[in-house]
């Protein structure tokens, strides 16, 4: 067995690898080993607790290769009425939208979107990356599109640029407000806007507009740092990040 050919790789128990990948529980792995169904580098395994470097060997179960990976990174176009949590007693969560093959990784949402907010949400089990993206010190920009009740104008853009005081007395960091269009709906002025903020206070976008006397009617996140919402991704759908997207998130 050529474990050394993956320099710096970490040894893991074979049954732990299979459990992590959602292939078999540890007890199931033990039975499968006795049945000769698990091979490593083409040879039947005699002990489900065998220590291997997963990147350095070929693992097969019932003739099918199992490719190990520690982390998973998913780009979700979150729909309304779904909560950004791993579990909830009353509502569907973003985890409920995932295919079973990803559940073994125990992914979690990086940050949160309000229940009635749509758009980009990253799910992963990479705690280090999540911490980097959520750290207040990083000031990761997040861009939203919104429909606002009221005529948003240049004075609002200036106020957001300076920072506005929220209902709890907190003054926001400078934000970039772009007015896409203004129009009347049912005789009332409305505005389509794009807003970029670099922090993530509770209900922040909605509270910022309340601070200037307006109300957010619809909200959608379209970007987080270098990550953009895929226009081909239907609401409620998800896909894995591309290598390029992952590298950009890591700042590579």
Can you offer a commentary on this structure?
The chain is α+β, with helices and mostly antiparallel strands and 252 residues long. The chain has three domains: 3-66, Structural Genomics Hypothetical 15.5 Kd Protein In mrcA-pckA Intergenic Region, Chain A (Roll); 77-135 and 230-250, Alpha-Beta Plaits; 142-224, Alpha-L RNA-binding motif (Alpha-Beta Plaits, 2-Layer Sandwich), CATH 3.30.70.1560. Helices cover 21% and strands 29% of the residues. It contains seven helices and 15 strands. The protein has helices at residues 14-20, 26-34, 100-103, 127-134, 154-162, 204-211, 243-250, and strands at 12-13, 38-40, 43-44, 51-52, 59-61, 64-66, 73-78, 108-109, 118-124, 142-149, 176-185, 188-197, 215-224, 227-228, 238-240. The strands form three sheets. Strands 7, 8, 9, 10, 11, 12, 13, 14 and 15 form a nine-stranded mixed β-sheet that branches. Strands 3-2-5-6 form a four-stranded antiparallel β-sheet. Strands 1-4 form a two-stranded antiparallel sheet. Strand 8 and strand 9 (118-124) form a beta hairpin. Mean pLDDT is 93; it is low at 1-7.
Task: Compose a concise summary of this entry.
Helix content is 21%, strand content 29%.
Order of helices and strands: EHHEEEEEEHEEHEHEEHEEEH
| DSSP helical segment count | 7
In total, how many beta strands?
15
Distance between the termini: 33 Å
Structural class: alpha+beta
Domains, number: 3
Q: Name the CATH architecture of the largest domain.
A: 2-Layer Sandwich
3D shape: elongated
Query: Poorly predicted ranges (pLDDT <50, ≥5 residues)?
Result: 1-7
User: In what range is the share of β-strand residues?
Assistant: 25-35%
CATH topology of the largest domain: Alpha-Beta Plaits
Largest sheet: 9 strands, mixed
Helix content: 10-25%
Radius of gyration: 23 Å
CATH class of the largest domain: Alpha Beta
The overall average pLDDT, rounded, is 93
Fourth CATH level, the homologous superfamily of the largest domain = Alpha-L RNA-binding motif
């Amino acid at each position: 067995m050529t474990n050394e050919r993956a320099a710096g790789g970490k040894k893991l128990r074979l049954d732990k690898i299979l459990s992590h990948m959602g292939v078999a529980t540890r007890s199931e792995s033990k039975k499968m080993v006795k049945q000769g169904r698990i091979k490593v580098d083409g040879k039947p395994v005699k002990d489900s607790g065998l220590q291997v470097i997963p990147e350095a060997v070929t693992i097969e179960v019932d003739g099918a290769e199992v490719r190990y990976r520690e982390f998973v990174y998913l780009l979700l176009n979150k729909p309304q009425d779904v909560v950004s949590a791993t579990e909830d007693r009353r509502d569907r969560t973003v985890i409920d939208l995932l295919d079973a093959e990803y559940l073994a990784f125990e992914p979690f949402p990086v940050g949160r979107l309000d229940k009635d907010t749509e758009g980009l949400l990253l799910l992963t089990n990479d705690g280090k990356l999540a911490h980097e993206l959520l750290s207040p010190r990083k000031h990761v920009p997040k861009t939203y599109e919104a429909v606002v009740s009221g005529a948003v104008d240049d004075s609002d853009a200036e106020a957001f640029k300076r920072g506005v005081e929220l209902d709890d007395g907190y003054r926001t960091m400078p934000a970039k407000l772009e007015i896409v269009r203004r129009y009347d709906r049912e005789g009332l002025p409305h505005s389509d806007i794009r807003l970029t903020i670099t922090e993530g206070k509770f209900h922040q976008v909605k509270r910022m507009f309340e601070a200037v006397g307006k109300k957010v009617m619809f909200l959608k996140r379209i970007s987080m740092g270098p990550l953009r919402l895929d226009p081909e991704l239907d609401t409620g759908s998800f896909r894995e990040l591309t290598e390029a997207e992952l590298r950009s998130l890591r700042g590579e």
